Please model this.
Amino acid sequence: MKAVRIIKNERGFSLIELLIVMVILGLLAGLVGPKLFGKVDSSKQKTAKTQISLFESALDTYRLDNGRFPTSEQGLKALREKPEGAARWKGPYLPKEIPVDPWGNAYVYRSPSEHGDFDIVSNGADNAPGGEGNDMDIVSWKDLD
Model:
């Protein structure tokens, strides 16, 4: 019969060792965390600009079929649903429903506009015209800085 060996020198981590590890992890999170959150803001702005570019492509196709862009009243909804008076509408021009911007707000569409045939605007995180940083408006007529 085999004898069971009992190891008496088994030790776990002491409270001090655990506290040191927790402090090191906290310091690392404090240094790395803010840099990662800064990337989240810029990625939302890039996402909004990409969505606006997709709207622009769909609007160009709409214009080719109908001879004009949708009016402000028809809005971006005309890319998914046939508006009144659009006899040559061959949509839907977007494969899915009109998305909201990365901050959960509707895009603003104007046609005709001050900057060309149409404007598409995301008002940023504050959902108000103007702003800087994360609150900056993302617009169809300018590139991101």
